[in-house]
Amino acid sequence: MSGLRVIEPGMLALVQDFGRFGWLAQGYSRGGPVDEHAFLWANRLLGNHFNAAQIEITLGGFSATAQASMKITVTGADVPVSVNGNSVPNWQVLQVNEGDKLAIGYARSGLRAYLAVAGGWQVTPVKGSCATVRREQIGGLTGHGHALVAGDSLTPEAVNNSSQAVTGQRVKPDFIPDYTSKLVLDVMPAAQFQQFAASAREVFFSETYQVIDKADRMGVRMKGAAVNWQGAGLVSEPLPIGAIQVPSDGQPIIMLNDRQTLGGYPKLGVLSWTAKNRLAQATPGSKIQFKEADAKPLQEQLKQVYRFFSVACQQAQNLRS
Amino acid sequence: MKNLPDIQRADVNAILLTFAAEISLEQNRRVHHVAAELRANHSPESIRSNVLELVPAYNTLMIYYDFINIDEQAFIDALKQVLSSLSEPEAGAAQGELYQVGVLYDTSVGLDLECVARRVDASIDDVIAMHTKPEYHVYAIGFAPGFAYLGDVDQALRLPRLDSPRQKVPALSVAIAEQQTAIYPLESPGGWNILGRCAQLPPLAAGVRVQFYSLTRADYEQQRQAGDK
Carboxyltransferase domain: from which residue to which, for each copy (chain B) (predicted)? Predict the structure, then answer.
C-alpha cells in the first residue's frame, strides 16, 4: 500500500506509456498519449524517462487518495486540480503526502489531462508496453485493456533521492497551449493527396470544419463541406496516426493513436505533430481549419522536439526474429 | 527488381512502397520479399540500423524509420539501392509455414452457413468442401490484433459482406467476404458471413498459409479443451 488509490476514475482514465511499438504488422495499434506534448512535458518535469507511464484522464472527474508521499504533476487540459480541497497549479511539480486527497475536476478547456508521478506508474508491460488500447484488450493495470476503476491502486516506480523532480518546478507559460485558441492545423500532403481533384483540395483547405461527438482515441470525425473523391476504391493500406481519411460522404476522419492498422479510405495527408496534439484536445463543436504545410520543416521541428524530450526511436524487437 | 515500387512519404517518419494497385498473390509476394530483405542482417548499415518497423499489406509496405538519425532523402536513396539490386521473388517459391486449422462447420456456430449455402445455390456440404479446398495465403494482418486477411476464396463461394454488420461476432468465428476469409481473433463487430468456428487461433503472420478442415463436434470440443490448458 504505497501508491495512489482511485476513488473516482471519471469518464475515462487510462494508463498510457509512450506507446506499443513494433506490433503493427500483427494488427496492434500504438496506443499511447494522444497529446504527446502534454505527456512529454509531464515526464520531463518529473525527471522521468520519456516512456514512463502516466494516467490519461479524459474530461476530468478523477479523484484519488495518496497512500504515500510522492511528487506528481498534472498537464494537458485545463482542469481544476486540488489537494485536500486546496487549489494547486497544473504543469507544475506538486508534493502530495500520505492521506492526501487529490481531485481533478472537469476541464475548462481542452479534453485530456495527464497525471504523472516521479518515476512513472509501475505497470507490467504487455508486448513491451503498458499502453491501454481497450478495443484490443491489451495494456493497462490488468494487462487486458481495462480503464481504471474505483479501488484500483497504482504504485510509483522507485526513485532515488537525487531524483531531478523539484517541487514547484513548472513549465514556462509560453510552452503551455491555450486550448481555447482557434485551431489551424498543419497538414502534410501524402498518400492520395494528388489524386484528389484540385477543387476538392481547395474545399478542404478553405472551409471550416467542426469536430463532432463521434470522437475517441481511434479517430475524430469532422463535419463541414464535403471533400469529394472521384477516384476508384482503394485496396486497404497501412494507416499512419494523424492520417486524414475521406470516406464516401466526404466528411474527414482524422486517425489518432488507437486507429486500426490498415485502412481503405482515400487520404489527403497527415497532421503535423503539433496539429495532432491540438486535435487530441479539441472538444466536440471545436472549429478547425486546415493549412497545407511542407514536410521538411515539420521533420526538422519534430527532430528538435524529440531531442529536447530525449525521445529515442526504438527498433521493433521482433524485426529480425 | 525491374519494376520498382512507387516510393512515397507517408509521414514524417514513414515511407510507403506501393506495388501494382491490385489484390494478387504475385504483388503480395513482392511485398513480403522486400520486407524480408529489409529485415535481413545483410542489408546495408543505413537500412539495418534505421528501419524501425515494417507493416506489410496487400500491395503496400509501410516502413517506419529513425528520422532522427537519418535524413529522409538519404534513407530513400539507400532504399532504392536495396530495391534495385534485389531479385524478383521466384514464382511459386516456397511460402511460409502451413497451418491446418480445424473448423466446426455447423449452423449452431456458423451463423450464416445456411444462408450462404442458399445464396451460392449449393448444399452445406458443398460449402464446406469449397471452403476447405484452397490453401489460403495470409495477405496481411490488420483491422484488429491477429486478424489475418486470407485469400483467395473459391470463385463460386464469393459473397459480399452482410448488408448490416453484426454488433458482436463471437471470437474464433470463421467467415468469408468476397475473395477473403478470416478468423475473428476476438469478439468484435463484423460484417463477414460466418461459416463456423475454430477451436484455437493459429499464430498467423503475413506470408504464412492456412488450410481449413472440417471438425466433428467431439473433435472440436476436444481441441477447445486442449487449448484451454
Answer: 5-205
Q: Among residues 179-198 of chain A, which lie with CB inside 8 Å of chain B?
A: 188, 190-191
B98-228 is a CATH 2.40.100.10 domain: yes
* Residue that is written with C-alpha cell 539507400 in the block: B78
The partner residue sitting opposite A22, judged by closest CB among B53, B58, B60, is B53
Architecture field, domain B6-85 = 2-Layer Sandwich (3.30)
> In chain A, where are the structural domains located?
4-175, 183-308
How near does any CA of chain B get to the CA of A294, in Å? 10
- Measuring CA to CA, which residue among B165, B140, B143, B160 is closest to residue B151? B140
In which residue are the cell numbers 461527438 written?
A: A213
- Spelled out in words, what is the top-level CATH class assigned to the domain A183-308? mainly beta
Interface A:B, Cβ pairs < 8 A:
131
CA-CA-CA-CA dihedral for A32, B203, B58, B50, to nearest 10: 50
- Residue spans of the domains in chain B: they are 6-85, 98-228
Q: Which amino acid is at B37?
A: E
Check CB contact under 8 Å for B141 and A25: yes
B25-39 helix and B72-85 helix, angle to the nearest 10 degrees: 120
Q: ipTM, 2 decimals?
A: 0.95
Tens of pLDDT, residues A134-181 = 999 999 999 999 999 999 999 999 886 556 788 999 999 999 999 998
Question: Does residue B17 sit at the A interface (CB-CB below 8 Å)?
Answer: no
Cα A126 to its chain centre, rounded Å, is 19
Residue B41 is classified by DSSP as: T
Distance between CA atoms of residues B41 and A200, nearest Å: 45
Chain A residues near residue B203 by CB distance under 8 angstroms: none
Q: What is the distance between the alpha carbons of residues B53 and A287, in angstroms, rounded to a whole number?
A: 35
- Residue A320: closest C-alpha in chain B: B39
Q: What is the pLDDT of residues B190-206, one digit of tens each?
A: 889 999 999 999 988 87
Cell of A121: 506508474
Q: How far apart are CA A159 and CA A109, in angstroms?
A: 33
- Put simply, the answer to whether B141 touches A261 (Cβ < 8 Å) is yes
**Residue B79's closest CA among B147, B31, B7, B143?**
B7
